[in-house]
Amino acid sequence: MKMNRRHVVLKHLSDPDDDFVQALPAERLLMIWDLTSEIWSLLDPEHVQRRLQRNVVSLTRQQG
Predict the structure, then answer these.
(1) pLDDT at 63
(2) What residue numbers bound the domain in which 56 lies?
(3) Is 32 part of a structural domain of the chain?
(4) Do the domain assignments include residue 30?
(5) Total domain count for the chain?
(6) pLDDT tens column, 13-62
(7) Which of 10, 20, 36, 48 has the fewest CB atoms within 10 Å, i.e. the most exposed one?
(8) How far apart are CA 24 and CA 30, in angstroms?
(9) 19 φψ region: left (φ > 0), alpha (ψ -120 to 50), beta (else)
(10) Is residue 14 assigned to a domain?
(11) Is residue 48 part of a domain?
């Protein structure tokens, strides 16, 4: 397949996306921390955080 060098189109983004998030600094730091801990858990099994167990149930009966 030959490249057509006679037809050149210059494209521009009308509104470039700089990935800015409208959030408080603490919220932005929390987003980065979640990504960082996920990457560390992939690299080193010692850094895996335990998740909450979803199969544990506690039953209480009312008196009377």
Answers:
(1) 82
(2) 25-63
(3) yes
(4) yes
(5) 1
(6) 676 666 778 889 999 898 898 888 888 888 877 766 666 667 777 778 88
(7) 10
(8) 10
(9) left
(10) no
(11) yes
Rounded distance, CA 8 to CA 56, Å?
Answer: 63
Q: Which residue has the tokens 């929390």?
A: 30
Three-state DSSP string of the chain? CCCCCCCCCCCCCCCCCCCCCCCCHHHHHHHHHHHHHHHHHHHCHHHCCCCCCCCCCCCCCCCC
By C-alpha distance, which of 56, 55, 38 is closest to 47? 38
**Cα angle, residue 62 at apex, residues 56 and 64 outer, rounded to 5°:** 160
Long-range contacts of 22-27 (CB under 8 A, 24+ apart): none
| Residue carrying the six token digits 């009308």 | 14
Nearest to 39 by CA among 29, 27, 49, 53: 49
Q: What are phi and psi of 29, to 5 degrees?
A: -65, -40
